[in-house]
Amino acid sequence: MATSAPPSNRFERRRAETRRALVRAARQILAETGDTSASIQAIAERADVGFGSFYNHFESKTELFEAAVQDALEEFGQTFDEHLAGIDDPAELVAAGFRLSARMAESHPELMQVLRRRGLGHIHSDNGLTRRALRDVEVGMASGRFTAVDPAVALSALGGTLLSLVELRFARPDMDGDDAAVNLAEMVLRMLGVPPDDAHEVARRPLPDLA
């Protein structure tokens, strides 16, 4: 899960852990079924916290599940930052992001199920993942690596394609996920204006290990 600065005293640490436990429980529910109709009592029991603790942190289930989605998206973005930190080419960043996402369907299944079920509604939200993607798109356009278009339009194309890839990985587990991601990454780079031969090469550069 996404992390933040540790609380400074015992009370704050316990309070923060209770909130994390509730968010973890909500993430699990979203990943397993996507059904947000579970009662607050059921959520609290799954989180192993008292029923009354819920309202110390959230005003409603809607607020909790939104926090769970934001937490998953931030973790996704942090994973990208961790594994792609040494890449400067925006085209390679986009391609590697698609390929890592395909692999994360196996290495981070809960996270990717949340993205699969709730990601579409957050493509243009001000979350950690969107900020990172928009940054890379804007850098690519400013450098001439990508064709200059409205960044929001480019973000729609990237986000929608990425979510389609995640859906494909879960709907067709028998398919070679790496091969599908490479081909899709090449198509996306060409869509962004990268020349065909260049897009073919960039989409196949070595990836960092997710372990």
TrEMBL record:
Residues 39-58 bind DNA. SUPFAM superfamilies: Homeodomain-like, Tetracyclin repressor-like, C-terminal domain. Keywords: DNA-binding. InterPro entries: Homeodomain-like_sf, HTH-type_TetR-like_transc_reg, HTH_TetR, Tet_transcr_reg_TetR-rel_C_sf, TetR_C_40. It holds the Pfam family TetR_N. Residues 16-76 form the HTH tetR-type domain. Transmembrane segments: none annotated. This is TetR/AcrR family transcriptional regulator. It comes from Streptomyces bangladeshensis.
